[in-house]
Amino acid sequence: MSNDNGGRVLNERHKEIAGKIWEIANRLRGPYRPPQYRLVMLPMVVLRRFDCVLEPTKEAVLIEHKRLIANKTAENALPRLLTKVVDPKRKQPLYNTSSYTFQKLLGDSENIAPNLVAYINGYSETARRIFEKFKFGEQIEKLDASNRLFNIVKAMSEIDLHPDRITNLEMGYIFEHLVMRFNEQANEEAGDHFTPREVIRLMTHLVYTGEEDVYKPGVYREIYDPACGTGGMLSVSEETIRAGNRAANLGLYGQEYNDESWAICCADMLIKDEETDHIVLGDTLGDGKTFDGFQGRQFHYMLANPPFGVEWKDQQKIVTKEHQELGFGGRFGAGLPAINDGSLLFLQHMISKMHPSPDSGGEGSKIAIIFNGSPLFSGDAGSGPSNIRRWIIENDWLDAIVAMPDQLFYNTGIFTYIWLVSNRKPADRRGKVQLIDGTRFFKKMKKSLNNKRNELSETHICRLTEIYSNYQNGEKENVCIDDKKNEWEKRVVSRIFDNREFGFLKVVVERPLRLNFEATPERIARLDEQSTFSNLAVSKKRKNDNAAAAEERAGREEQDAIRTLLGSLTRKGRYMDRAVFEADLDKAAKKHAKTRLPAPIKKAIYAALGERDPKAEICRDSKGNPEADGDLRDTENIPLPKKTNLPLPMAFGPDMPNGELIDAMTPVIDAYIEAEVLPHVPDAWVDYTKTKVGYEIPLNRHFYVYKPPRPLADIEKDVSTLEGEIASLLKGLVK
Predict the structure, then answer these.
(1) Confidence of residue 14 (pLDDT cuts 50, 70, 90)
(2) Per-residue pLDDT averaged across 636-654, rounded?
(3) Cα–Cα distance measured from residue 251 to residue 275, given in angstroms and rounded to the nearest whole number
(4) Which of 91, 245, 463, 610 could form a disulfide with 215 if both were Cys (CB 3.0 to 4.6 A apart)?
(5) Cβ atoms 420, 681 nearer than 8 A
(6) For residue 654, what pLDDT band results from cuts at 50, 70 and 90?
């Protein structure tokens, strides 16, 4: 599609046909509830599409099949020979050896159920498997029993889905519309949804921009989607590349865990004569039963819209094992995200399938993936998500992030983001990341489709692609900031940052523990709250009651002795130095010869009799070092310096940093603490051993536009007006 008008024509055509199919689906009401319509209609649409594709050569296939059988042709040769009858150029087997078509099925209404089964069984092997995954046989029985089968087949026979009338691209739109409607009825999860085709077009425009090799005649490139759904990313990628290079040789690969989506994708590939074996059924991450279907493979281009905001508990055992046992030798070495959102696992998986970079003698790869906002900033420094971001950015793979408008998707209204990741960034992009604010690039739909109220026009797609290609820091665009008031404003939509600008050091700042001590009755009574002290009167002798009673009695006597010892210090008043209090405590213990004060009991006494006091002396350990007060502990996030003697990527390993990191960053940390912390808390210090490296991408902050508050006079005027309106309303209520 070259313009918005073309897009609208296409949009209306697919909506019209999808609307007719939806009308047919409504005839299922009764034996089926609306969320169950998909069980019948999706395989029925695929079956009708196959029927239309094969109808022109149907008789020729039957004649050839009869001849081949009569000649006792080898069974394994039949698929190739029959497929050549359908189309001499065709490589993937697609034919039907039954005597039926949709029209012929209608000629025997009494036996339509067994005839329809025979019709499906007459298809080539891959086509039959598609209907097996749809579990369509179960629905045929149910439709026949409820007297709905004949009418549904008859209605579908009146819809022409031949590729000459409905292109594969349009067929994708029709499935998109239908699946969206069915998902709406079934209330599917927000992260498990169809990707609107205009979003996919934006992704493909972005990912293939600057890729000169892909437009060379005869070039071979492989495209992969690890969460391919019904195959939209693969189909639109193919369309985009072939629009500029009809002679390109493309290998399309995908994996999908949902049987129904896999079946639709395979049907689309089969009709287009693509390799259906390249579409694998199973869980890409690994659920114990199915695994990565392309282990050891690399791909030139990868696109995906993985489930986001969706738990990965079913894959947790397999993924965690791979992370722990293989590290960077597997797919998930950088870290694991929170259990409630596994989208970053898919990006790591895709990165593991990049070709070696040109610097390493390979061709390199480029990735486009859709995320929600969580992967930008979720997780503290040293956490799984932060470490994954760190790994990607420090290796200079993150090329750009495009923020898209909200309300673009059918089942969720949230803002989404396209991440572009590549290990073959051109020279001018190396060491940097481009952020693009596309949140105002949309037009309102005349009629919303569930949560989808906004859409990208072809103009928006081309402009965002141009902004990405221009690669200008501070590029501006005139955008609409208020639809209702039709207000427009010139805003910055592109910013470029050094990789280091997203990194920071999370530094733990300690403050000294300062306690006063006083042996008052109230504080002594708090000893009972200390488990070490209270456990003195608890026996561990479970089997001998007499021995247990004696032990508990001795424990209570010991507790009383400690209370008496502490009572002797009451007259000393308040201690402002723990060392002085400890000295007096030890002297008192020597006077009470029978009273023992081991270290755990001393600790309990300090906890009960001590209270924080900023005027007290600092508590110190046996080496004279200040003890840290956990309640006063704080952290500081210090930006990574642009220039340092530690190059990126930094040594990547456990959360605890290595000595190299501390040595390199200590001057940076000390300078920051001296300037920003010590002027306010002079007794603070840094615990360098707890320093962690974190990465986050505060995209919204970088495009924030300050709006000054309204003048007080205007606000006061509005308040007065409202007060007047309220008073008028109240007059009608008060007599």
Answers:
(1) confident
(2) 81
(3) 8
(4) 245
(5) no
(6) low
Output the CA angle 341-401-438, nearest 5 degrees.
105
Full-model pTM: 0.88
Rounded Cα gap, residues 235 and 220, in angstroms: 16
Using CA atoms, how far apart are residues 46 and 270, in angstroms rounded to an integer?
A: 11
DSSP string, 31-98: TB-GGGHHHHHHHHHHHHHHHHHHGGGHHHHHHHHHHHHHTT--GGGHHHHHHHHH-TT--S---B-S
Report the distance separating Cα 597 and Cα 572, nearest Å.
Answer: 19
pLDDT of residue 179: 79
The DSSP bridge pattern shows strands 432-437 and 494-498 to be antiparallel
CA 427 to chain centre: 29
Cβ atoms of residues 527 and 605 within 8 Å: yes
Which stretches within 448-544 are classed as H helix?
458-470, 521-525, 531-534
d(CA 245, CA 214): 8
The alpha-helical segments, DSSP class H, found in 146-189 are 149-157, 168-186
Q: Which residue has the tokens 């609107």?
A: 196
Rounded CA-CA distance 16/160 in Å is: 12
Please give the single-letter amino acid code of residue 319.
V
Tell me what the mean pLDDT of segment 218-243 comes to: 94
* CA atoms within 13 Å, Cβ hemisphere of 565: 25
CB of 457 within 8 A of CB of 4?
yes
The dihedrals phi and psi of 451, each to the nearest 5 degrees, come to: -85, -5
CB 378 within 8 A of CB 323: no
CB distance 50 to 127 below 8 Å = yes
Separation CA 246–CA 215 (nearest Å): 9
Give the pair of three-digit tokens for residue 715.
Answer: 């606000």
Strand order in the sheet with 279-281: 279-281, 249-256, 220-225, 301-304, 366-371, 417-422, 398-403, 432-437, 494-498
Q: Which helix (H) or strand (E) holds 209?
A: none
What are the respective helix, strand and coil percentages of the chain, to the nearest 5?
Answer: 50, 15, 35
Q: Residue 285: which of 235, 323, 324, 259 has the closest Cα?
A: 323
Would you say 119 and 105 are in contact if contact means Cβ atoms under 8 Å apart?
A: yes
AA identity, residue 98: S
pLDDT of residue 734: 64
Return the amino acid letter for 123: Y
Instruction: Provide the token pair at 141.
Output: 């029985």
Contact 356, 362 (CB under 8 A): yes
Token pair of 197 as six digits: 């085709």
- Residue 186: pLDDT above 80? no
Three-class SS state of 277: helix
DSSP letter for 29, please. Answer: B
**Residue 245 token pair:** 């290079």
